[in-house]
Amino acid sequence: AQTVTQSQPEMSVQEAETVTLSCTYDTSESDYYLFWYKQPPSRQMILVIRQEAYKQQNATENRFSVNFQKAAKSFSLKISDSQLGDAAMYFCAYQGGSEKLVFGKGTKLTVNP
Amino acid sequence: GAVVSQHPSRVICKSGTSVKIECRSLDFQATTMFWYRQFPKQSLMLMATSNEGSKATYEQGVEKDKFLINHASLTLSTLTVTSAHPEDSSFYICSVTGREAYNSPLHFGNGTRLTVT
Prior knowledge:
The structure holds 2 protein chains of 2 kinds.
Chain A: E1 3-5, E2 10-14, E3 19-21, E4 24-26, E5 33-39, E6 46-52, E7 60-61, E8 64-69, E9 74-79, E10 88-95, E11 101-103, E12 107-112
Parallel strand pairs in A: 2-12
Antiparallel strand pairs in A: 1-4, 3-9, 5-6, 5-10, 7-8, 8-9, 10-11, 10-12
Chain B: E1 4-7, E2 10-13, E3 19-25, E4 30-38, E5 44-51, E6 57-58, E7 67-73, E8 76-81, E9 90-98, E10 107-108, E11 112-116
Parallel strand pairs in B: 2-11
Antiparallel strand pairs in B: 1-3, 3-8, 4-5, 4-9, 5-6, 7-8, 9-10, 9-11
């Protein structure tokens, strides 16, 4: 079974600075997707970024980028120029052939003004 | 606009009663829907996979007779918590994927906060 590990229960960052959230996963599949979701206090799941495993190029979405290391099974999220609105729970997730998402335990991000 | 509509957003019920939660796909045909449960300060845990026109597939440890799932159409899946107990109080959230399946990002409903008194 696939597993997703987020080793940082909580992280904090100063506004306008950069923070990196860690995620590792375990799988025997070669074709899969990886995601980062943001969950604010409203509990709405918001897709931040998606990475296809077959793509070597790291995905980017404005201030959000990933460092995808397939061999190491690592998928970290970098948030640049952090904003107060970035404060939330961040979940790393894996989607393989079964289509279902396997989530990590989450990282609570605090942004300090 | 919203792609997935989940209703109700909040429900309070008495112990022993049943509660139905609806998940509707608004913009596309959802062949597969997923039901997750999230306890406070925890991650989302998959409960079951709902496939249109067939029986749901439940994850290990999830009681299929307690959490009834019906996916009768390509736009609607329902989760019924039968004989609810206080320990069933949780946040339930659905997600859907379209006929494009593997290449579609999963869309989430806004979730349902269930409180059983």
